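Hi R.,

As promised, here are both runs. First protein below:
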Amino acid sequence: MACTEEEFTELLSGEVYIDMDKLVAISRHGIPEKVRAEVWKYLLGISKTDKSEEERVKKQQQQDYKEIDKNDSEITKRIRAHLKRYQNYTRSDSRIKIDFQSVEIRNKFENIIISYINYNNDIEYSFGMLAILGPFIATLQSESDIFFCYVAMMKRIEENLQIESLTSKLSRFMMYFRSVLPELFSHFEEEEVSSNDWATSWIQNYLSCELPIECVLRLWDTYLSAQLGLDLHVFVSLAILTNFSEELLELEHSEILAFLQHLPGIDMDQIIAQAYNIRDDIRANNEL
């Protein structure tokens, strides 16, 4: 059961230190919108639990971010083109919106991605970088806070992929899909719906494009705090397919892809609970 904003505020207002065990425990059930930015910074290790260190660390982060080169005309062009594509994924009926008309917001996307690439010299720019950044732009205000949270999230994603590659994750997801939802899997085959046209983005970008932004934020509350973390994502994806299977069975090729690329709003608490149940069922059948 989700905790109230007051319970989070009380925990965050500790004068000496933040009890991370408690913060992690209450965050996995969802974080209230007004405190999400502050909580995410603790969950990602950007804010220090020792309050005496907080101000010093924040000033150092701001200075470090300021010193990173944010100029690259070639990447800027690509980001601007991809922002139009990313904007097409977002919808006007979302409760939480990213103002793509705002020069300040567009500058944040450009500055942070270019800073991230210059911060990690061996990294190539891709659309996925922008997709993962979107939820942080929607949640936090300070550009340096967004940057360091983004760096921490990308590190978690990279470490997760070192344990299991994207190709392996996709293969396992499709195997589970065939096992858990054989009728829907067959329907996708009959309609010649390729996993490359939807599943790759679902798994690689953690549904940051396909779900309404408020659903992504609720989902990521759990990814940042639950013990399974990002490993839960494959099962969340299966839970979403399960939830929409009846609708999807009625659709044809192009309609299926349009649906999968722009998912409706959904009760993420229910989806997350269902994801754990699906994982337990798969484990019980010795398929994990």
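And here is the second one, sequence first, then its structure tokens:
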Amino acid sequence: MKEYALFVCCLIPARLPGLEAISIKVLERFGVQTRPMRGASCCPDPVVMRSLDYKAWLVIAARNLSIAEEMRSDVLTLCSGCFSTLGKANKVLKEDQHLRNEVDKCLSEIGRGFLGTINVRHVAEVIRDLGPEIIGRQLQKPLKAWKAAAQHGCHLVRPSDVLHVDDPNRPTILDQIVSWVGATPVDYMQKMLCCGVGIRALDPDTNLIILRERLASIREAGANCIVTPCPFCFIQFDMGQREVNRKFNESYAFPVFYITELLGLAVGFTPEEVGLQFHTTQIKEV
């Protein structure tokens, strides 16, 4: 199996280290090896930093890509925002020689350069590409009790002309993985909308209104858990439910799974090995 340069992002090591741990364990179970990208920085952010200073955004992303190029490995990201930034920057710099020259001029000051020799992948893609047969061979505990609402987030499938993961309007990547581990995918009205976490710091009240609407849509569809490949969506749903309950006198308690946590449970890792004890919304029974 292939070996990847693992880009863990800023959020996961700081606030969700369990997601990194279970992701590595699950990938190893399927023979996928990872190596840490020593010296990597923030990706940087695909919205704010890119809007404030596009060239600086490209240079920082190119520096991170150059680390993986030195390792001679494709990048594997656990964060959809990082996937978006590194994937976009990689494509732009491969195709735009003028920008590449400008970026290389900056990188040369620290003894680096962009070669354009690698690709960027998200962990959800790697799991999807394993396919149902390979995953089925490792399945020890089919998750038949779970009816899962998939939260793709904003950066996994868009822009589709750059990331090429799935249909940007009707993606099936998460629903496929959910079904392969024995759970039932549940469609719901607001499936493709933003979770609202991007405005959490700017407008916390509107952020909670958005989240409440998403949770209501999921409840109405009959789901009993939420699955996401995005650590920001994970925090929004896992921690945000408590805030929604407090502000609006609701009683939401959906278990929230990062995609490798769900797969980890299905292939036999214990809830403690998966890290479910670190969730804000506690999962009473698996």
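A quick note on the second one: The beta strands are 3-7, 33-36, 75-77, 120-122, 147-150, 184-186, 225-228, 256-258. Let me know what you think.

Best,
J.
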